[in-house]
């Protein structure tokens, strides 16, 4: 019984340590995103033109490592660097906040780069939410799209 109590306390302590480390990694990554240069200007000389997305529209990140999902209290923040200034910290941290139900879809979009993902295959999303998410992320130059 003593060993069981000690092992339960050890597991609990380990869980708290992992959570603290995860939070620290999120803070460091967010700081790096804020301080990084934007994507090369020639890539975005004109804002991307996108007809309204359809469920068959294919999307992916505009550049690798331009965004990170950070979980908070009941929300999921997507922190990104695509609109950063070339002047150090001229603008503040860029983030878009979503309900926790968007976490899987956002993680899929970030982790699947450089593969193209159909809007209809975003997990845990009804079609309208998926299309709205893609439209918002494309306007923020986080995603690029093409038709199938």
Topology overview:
Elements: H1 2-35, E1 58-61, E2 67-71, E3 75-80, E4 94-99, H2 103-111, E5 117-118, H3 127-139, E6 143-146
Antiparallel strand pairs: 1-5, 1-6, 2-3, 3-4
Structure overview:
The protein has 148 residues and is α+β, with helices and mostly antiparallel strands. Strands 5-1-6 form a three-stranded antiparallel sheet. The chain has a three-stranded antiparallel sheet with strand order 2-3-4. The protein starts with a helix and ends with a strand.
What multimeric state do the chains show? Answer: single chain
Tell me the strand order in the biggest sheet: 5-1-6
The value of Rg in angstroms is 18 Å
Q: Tell me the number of helical segments per DSSP (H or I, 4 or more residues long).
A: 3
Percent of residues in helices comes to 25-40%
Determine the structural class based on helices, strands and strand pairing. Answer: alpha+beta
Overall body shape: globular
Quote the beta fraction: 15-25%
> Biggest β-sheet: count, sense, barrel?
3 strands, antiparallel
Order of helices and strands: HEEEEHEHE
Indicate the mean pLDDT: 79
- Uncertain segments are none
Q: CA-to-CA gap between the ends?
A: 61 Å
Total DSSP E strands:
6
Brief rundown of the structure:
The protein has 148 residues and is of the alpha+beta class. The chain has helices at residues 2-35, 103-111, 127-139, and strands spanning 58-61, 67-71, 75-80, 94-99, 117-118, 143-146.
